[in-house]
Amino acid sequence: MTDPVPTPGASAPAEPYEKRWLALAVIAVTVLLVILDATIVNIALPAVSVDLGIDAATQQWIVTAYTLTFGGFLLLGGRIADFWGRKRTYLVGAGGFAVASALGGLAQNEGMLFAARALQGAFGALLAPASLALLTVLFTDTKERAKAFAVYGAIAGGGSAVGLLLGGVLTEYADWRWCFWVNLPVAVVAILAAIPIVPESRAPGDTSYDVPGAVLVTLGLASFVYGFTLVAENSQENAAAGLTDNAWADPWALLFIGGGALLVAAFVVLELKTRNPLLPMRIVLDRNRGGAYLTSTLVGAGLIGAFFFLSLYFQQVLGYKPVEAGFASLPTTLGVLLSAGGASALVPRVGPKPLMVLGGLLAAAGLFVMSFLGIDSGFWELAFPGQLLLGLGLGFTFVPLSNLALVGAGEHDAGAASAMLNATQQVGASIGTALLATLSVGAITDYVTDAVTSGRNPADPAVGLQAQVEGYTTAFTWAAVLLVLGALVSGVLIKATKDDLPEEMAVPV
């Protein structure tokens, strides 16, 4: 006999939904699909770039095209999930994600690949907030919700590293195109399983859409990130031409960055005046939740950038094969698995703040360790301990983030609140990748310039290799700074203790 499911528009059932753990398993698969897809192509970057003729200055768009549309449309996706139906949005998101993945695997040039990645991000923006909102309404028991969020936190923290491993295996033993095609069977299985298992739910009350707000925030974020990308491209071109011009002086880059900031500011003003806004300011202006979102942005900026450059370091400096580079990225996942379970048990007992501060500092320490990597560094010497620390820190960060960002949001705003959490991480990833790429290219340029000044031949392979290392380690250093800032934000803004948490998160006596 089929378990009863909540009727559209109804509140969460008083009795726990019987198939909630099966639903969690199905949702976890697709959440992993979305998160690992942000990094699964990182290992394949060299192969993709050679095959499709993508230069070093624009290859970051293989990553950024995905994270940008993902982050830009997440707020709208969260509202669609709340109002249209979370299960229905989940199914459409998974199906569209599969189609976009198929197109990515068929790409014949960089334009087609970038477009497919952007389409993946757009459907991921439906899938991700619907998934997290479903977890919010399915798990009402304190301990069960903690376990569910531990699963989500482990996926959020370790999914990126799993993507690197899977990307390496597929690139090495099949073809880089399978980094996209592998999503199809997973999505089909998830859809077929979700139809009978995952229940439908919708937000009660006013359910109108804020289309102008969606347009403003998406255009604003796209413009902002594109400005940083122009700086990175200019730095790369100056380095190739042997010029020392300041890439930040490009008026077009400054125009896009400034224009993006203005559009986002206009979005905030609009949201304050709109009757049913895309992002209700009550969600963001809560001190604890706002602190969680800002922390998520900074962590996303440092995390994705670190994975982007680590995969390049393993392959282009140490000469690892793709599958070797994938396995070399596993210590981060190990660290997340070790800390996520402990974090889920500790959040209701010590509160979210201590764990988020500790997690940010541990992750920053891991990146700082990797900033000492060199041409001849052994894997066990720096890369392994650095990644393990990074993973431990991420587990202690993501679990309380997932809890704190949704506490008190209410069923009407569950999708929007979860979308904001995903959006801040993905927008941070987009901006962080562009910013760290800019700093990395600048460091490479400076090293080559200094080498020429000292009489060394810039065409010497040793000079080029050391220049790459300087660029990557500079990126690791600044990524560590971003995570330290995240820890500071958590320490200053988040005031919630275990006694301040609502009853739904209190530990039963």
UniProtKB/TrEMBL annotation:
Domain Major facilitator superfamily (MFS) profile: residue ranges: 23-498
Gene3D superfamilies per the UniProt record, alphabetical: MFS general substrate transporter like domains (1.20.1250.20), Multidrug resistance protein D (1.20.1720.10)
Pfam families for the chain: MFS_1 (PF07690)
Source organism superkingdom: Bacteria
Coiled coil: none
Name of the protein described by the UniProt record: MFS transporter
Keywords: Cell membrane, Membrane, Transmembrane, Transmembrane helix, Transport
Membrane-spanning segments: 21-45, 57-77, 89-107, 119-139, 151-174, 180-199, 211-232, 252-270, 291-314, 326-348, 355-375, 387-406, 427-448, 475-494
Membrane topology (UniProt): Multi-pass membrane protein
Keyword presence, Transmembrane helix: yes
Lineage, opening ranks: Bacteria, Bacillati, Actinomycetota, Actinomycetes, Geodermatophilales
Organism of derivation: Blastococcus jejuensis
